[in-house]
Structures are given as C-alpha cells and as structure tokens.
Write a structure and sequence with these properties.
CATH class of the largest domain: Alpha Beta
Helix content: 40-55%
Number of domains: 2
Distance between the termini: 67 Å
Strand order of the largest sheet: 3-4-6-5-7-8-9-10
Shape: flat
Radius of gyration: 29 Å
Structural class: alpha/beta
Number of strands: 10
Largest sheet: 8 strands, mixed
CATH architecture of the largest domain: 3-Layer(aba) Sandwich
Length: 535
C-alpha cells in the first residue's frame, strides 16, 4: 500500500460495509429462528411418521444446517471487515501523526515516504548538535512512516485473503456446508486477531514500546480505541493510567452483564468472579473525590484480574503497589485489599504531606488457595506480570520519575521477591515485605533494589512470617534487610493481616512505617531488631 492510499482512504466505508453485514446477520438470524419455530420444531413435535416423514427428516436437517452455516458465514464476513477496518485505521492514524510531526519539525515527506531536510535557519546551519538532532528526528519519522505502510500492507493482504476465501465459499456452495463452517472456525489462517496484531505492538513488546505506539496515535484515534475497543487498552501495560481507567470502566459493566446473565446456580469460580466485579463496581461508585480512584485492570482470566489505584500513578511523586497473598480473590480488590491500599495512601500523606501519592492494589495472578500455597508456581507465573506492570508505570509516568515501592504480603512477598530476581529486576526503588514466608532467596542483596532498600515487617504472633517456606525468613538478621517495627499482634491468628491498621484508635506503627518508606523516607522508620541468626 502506498503512502497516498493509506493517508487519504476513507476506511469508514469499510466500517459501513461491516455494519451492513451485521444487520444482515441479525436479520438472517431472525429468518433462521422463524424456520426453527415455524417448520423444524413444529414438524418434530407433530409425531409425524411413515415413509414420507422418513424422506423429509434428512431434508429438513440439511436445510437447518445450510441456514445455520450461511448465517455463520455472513457473521464472519462482517467481523473480518470490522476488524480489518479497525486495523487499517490504526495504521492510517499512525501515518497521519508521523506526517503531522514531520510538518511540525519543518521536514518534508514525499509520496514515497522519504523524509527531506530543508535548509535550516541561518543561525543553525553551522551548529553540529542541531544537525544531529534534526537527522535523528528525520530518521525516526522515516521509520514510523515505513512501519505504518508495512503494517497497512500486511493488513490489506490478510483481509483480502479472508474475503476471497468467503467469496469462494459462496461461489462453490460450501458456504452452506456445516462441516466447512466448522473447519473455518478452527483455521488459524482465518483468525481475526492477527489483523490487529499486525498494527499493534506484540504481546511481548516492552511497555516502553507500547507507550511509544500509543503516543504515535492522534488523540481522536486514542479515544476511538478506548470507546470501541476497550479490550485492547484497559489491561495493556505501557498505556497511560487515565486511558486504562476509561477503558476498564467500559469493560466492567460488560463483564457484570455477562456474568449476571448466566443461569443459576453459578459454579464456585463464576460466582466469586461475579461478586468480585460487583464489589469493584461499588468501590468505584462510592469512593470520594480525593484521591481519584482509577481502575487500571479488569478481566476474567483465571480467578479474575483487577488493579485499583488511589491516585494517578502517572503524575504522583510516590507510587506503590501491593500484591496480596494466599486466598486473595477478586472481591478483595474492591474490599480488604482496596482498604489496605487506601490506608497506605493515608499513611504516606501523614509521612510527607508535601508529596503526591498513588497507592495500588494489584491482582494480576491466581493467588493460591489452601494447600496450593506449598507451590511456587503461581508466584513464578505472576512475577513476570508484576515486573511488566511496574515497567509500564515507569514508561507512562510524566515528568521526573516517581519514587516506586513494591509491596508484597504473605505469598505475595514471594511473588515480589521472585520478580526482583528476574533479569532486569523490578522498576522499583524500595521493596516492602510483610508477613513474608520467604522470597525465594537467602539474602536481600539478591533482590534488584539491594539489601539497603529492602524492608521487612514481621509481627511477633504472625506465624506465617516465621515459617521460612521459601528460603530464609526475611526478618532474620542473616537475610540482611531493614526490619521496621510493627505491633506484636494477637496469637489468635489476626496478626498476619494487621499490618495496615491505620484507623483512629488502632496502633499505626506498621502502616506509618510503610508510609515513610513509600514517600522515600526509609531513614525515618522506627526499627525493630531482626530475629536471631548469624548477621
């Protein structure tokens, strides 16, 4: 596809064609339902028997199968047109934005995509730094233009192949063959997701690349994506927090409607997800104006996914995210984990009222249930997702980089510890481990922030923190972390969950220490002697 074609084509016409196919799909569906109720089911219920019935039954089945296959094919054409149009609009928007940026930089672009460098103003002609910066800008813009054209060409070819396939099916009659329709559903060459994948960063693309792609789109295209394809925006690390929040506030009601539409009784996992979505919706509706509450993630994968932030992490000076442990469910993100994140936010404001804070409750993995806690698998799977999430926060933050603190509670501390041992480490300045049964290493120096920036809270009556299930107990002297003071708690088992007690009348020692660390004042924590062991 050449530059002029991509720049000037009105792909809204493709969307219009998709709309027409969608209407036809709906009308054909009504036709099929009329066939079922007026002919197929009526004859089946009549008890008709005999030679004529024996001859008619296969014909009726054949007609039902052909009508069903035809309706399926019509729907797939509409889906292909819409997905292809979405992909081409994305490529077109990227190209137009690159051309606009070229004009702003006083550069020219010819019809072949070549970026020209007109003579600079006289004052800059002999400035080598100016020439180098101008050359870098031109090269970057040329690369963006080449990428947009290549992506559009790939989508154009792939969409054409899919439409040719459906046209052939219509011409040779196989569009009415139920078996052929079933094969099409499983044919990877006809999958629609690759059309979008061709114009978006890959699933494994670094968040910084995703962020650059997002900012390469015009504002109106960003808003169109949020509105029309929130599924592509809401959970993508590297996309700004406010855009993710807008998209996820569109996705959440859809998830609620779908789960509320399931016939009872709901199985355990489905019921828990529904309750989780409801609790998150309630939290978003009832929270006050300060701080703003942003929904940075929502999904039904596994046991459910959600990320809730008190404050905007893209503008806050201090950003912290808490990973819950064993038994953390989706409903906790709208409940207890949200309460904890809010308590940390309040503690940070007490520690340093001059700084802005974002405090996040993060559920991006399947927390173990019951005996599953003996396995490291869930933590290992979640560590990569958490590392990517923090890298995304670095990529989207505006202005001076934020002071970032990673928090892990119980089994979540293992996840944080494993994430901090992955290649590249965590995009964090400090780590806070509370009620930790271990981090997968024997010494804090193995964590990417180093021993001096690893902080541990372990209550006297918190039995989980004394187990050392996953290598050495982080509260021991020979682990090398900074142990901060926390209340002893109670032997009734509640100590494991009391680290964020911060309401009036409660002992705030623990959460206030966390607040000091979150605001970059780790030197002001009240300390507690580490547990015994060789230093």
């Amino acid at each position: 596809m050449d530059l002029a074609t991509l720049r000037d084509t009105d792909f809204g016409l493709l969307h219009g064609a998709a709309d027409a196919y969608d209407r036809l799909h709906g009308e054909f569906g009504q036709h099929l339902e009329n066939w079922h109720t007026g002919v197929d089911r009526r004859i089946a219920a009549a008890g008709w028997t005999g030679p004529a019935a024996d001859a008619a039954t296969p014909a009726l089945r054949l007609t039902t199968g052909e009508l069903t296959a035809a309706r399926t094919g019509i729907g797939r054409i509409g889906q292909a047109l819409r997905t292809g149009a979405d992909a081409l609009v994305l490529a077109q928007s990227a190209l137009r934005k690159a051309l606009e940026d070229a004009r702003s930089a006083d550069l020219t672009v010819d019809e072949h995509g070549t970026v020209g460098r007109p003579a600079p103003p006289p004052a800059d002609r002999h400035d080598p730094d100016h020439r180098k910066a101008r050359d870098r800008t031109a090269e970057a813009l040329a690369a963006r233009i080449r990428t947009a054209l290549a992506e559009a060409d790939a989508v154009d070819r792939a969409l054409a192949a899919r439409l040719r396939h459906h046209t052939t099916r219509a011409h040779d009659g196989t569009a009415l063959d139920p078996a052929a329709a079933a094969r099409d559903r499983l044919d990877p060459a006809l999958a629609l997701r690759p059309l979008l994948d061709a114009v978006m960063p890959g699933a494994d693309a670094p968040p910084a690349e995703v962020n650059a792609w997002w900012h390469g789109l015009p504002t109106d295209e960003q808003q169109r994506l949020i509105k029309d394809r929130p599924d592509l925006v809401g959970n993508r690390d590297g996309i700004p927090a406010t855009a993710r929040d807008q998209a996820n506030r569109i996705l959440l009601p859809r998830l609620l409607a779908r789960y509320e539409g399931y016939p009872p009784p709901l199985d355990g996992r489905t019921g828990l997800k529904l309750e989780g979505f409801r609790r998150i919706g309630e939290r978003l509706r009832t929270e006050g104006q300060d701080p703003p509450v942003l929904l940075l993630g929502i999904g039904e994968e596994g046991q459910g996914r959600a990320v809730l932030s008190f404050g905007d992490p893209d503008t806050a000076q201090d950003v912290t995210s808490l990973v819950g442990g064993m038994g953390t469910e989706l409903q906790h993100i709208g409940g207890a984990d949200a309460d904890r994140a809010r308590e940390v936010y309040d503690a940070a404001k007490r520690a340093d009222p001059t700084r802005s804070t974002a405090s996040i409750a993060w559920l991006g993995y399947d927390a173990p249930l019951g005996a599953d806690v003996a396995s490291r698998t869930e933590a290992e799977d979640g560590a990569a997702a958490y590392q990517r999430f923090l890298a995304g926060q670095r990529a989207t933050h505006q202005g001076t980089p934020a002071h970032v603190t990673a928090q892990g509670h119980s089994y979540g501390s293992l996840l944080v510890g494993l994430a901090a041992q992955r290649p590249g480490g965590l995009a964090a300045d400090d780590i806070v481990l509370v009620g930790s049964p271990g981090t997968g290493t024997d010494h804090a120096s193995d964590l990417s922030v180093g021993a001096g920036h690893t902080y541990v809270g372990a209550a006297r009556w918190d039995y989980v923190s004394q187990t050392g299930w996953y290598a050495r107990d982080p509260a021991r002297a020979d682990f090398g972390a900074q142990r901060f003071a926390v209340p002893d708690g109670s032997p009734d088992g509640s100590a494991h969950s009391s680290y964020w007690d911060g309401r009036p009348g409660e002992d705030r020692t623990s959460v206030d220490n966390i607040g000091r660390i979150v605001t970059g004042h780790g030197d002001r924590i009240t300390r507690q002697a580490p547990r015994g062991g060789r230093p």
